[in-house]
Structures are given as C-alpha cells and as structure tokens.
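Practice problem: predict the structure.
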Amino acid sequence: MDLARRLAKAALEAKLAACANIVPSVESHYWWEGKLESSDEVLLIFKTRQQLLPKLERAVREIHPYDTPEFVALPLTAGSQKYFAWLADITAKE
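Answer:
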C-alpha cells in the first residue's frame, strides 16, 4: 500500500495522471520464472492520456522495485465528455 501511495503521488505531482485509484487486497495468480505463483497485491489504476503513457511508465519503473511491474493500458471507448475534458485539463502541459 505504501508503494502504491508513493507511485500515485509521484504521478499526480508530475501531472502524468489526473487521478489514481488504489484498490487494496487483490489476489493475483500468475506464471513467474517457470513457476505458478500467487500473491496479495495492490491494484493501482491511473487515469491519463495516451500521449503520457511512456512518461508514466518511466516514472513507475523508476520507483517500483519489481524488475517487471505490471503496466498495461486499456483504451477508453466511451465516457462523459466533461470528465474527459477535466482529465485533459489536469494533465495538460503548463
């Protein structure tokens, strides 16, 4: 949880995301180094623009201790135009 909070704060302060949701207590099952693993994790969801993904990924990788932290992008196909305008405004270059 502390790591998720640090990542969220860094991304928000750098205006790489307009919002970060921290979802505690996610049980993950996955393959790692040839073995089936499971662990309790925290899910961190950033709301950002596609153009900022490379910078956001670099920021996450600089802070995250994992060699391969999960970093995936899901497209937004619909939503409130007012929300999208807010997101764009928050993450706009100053």
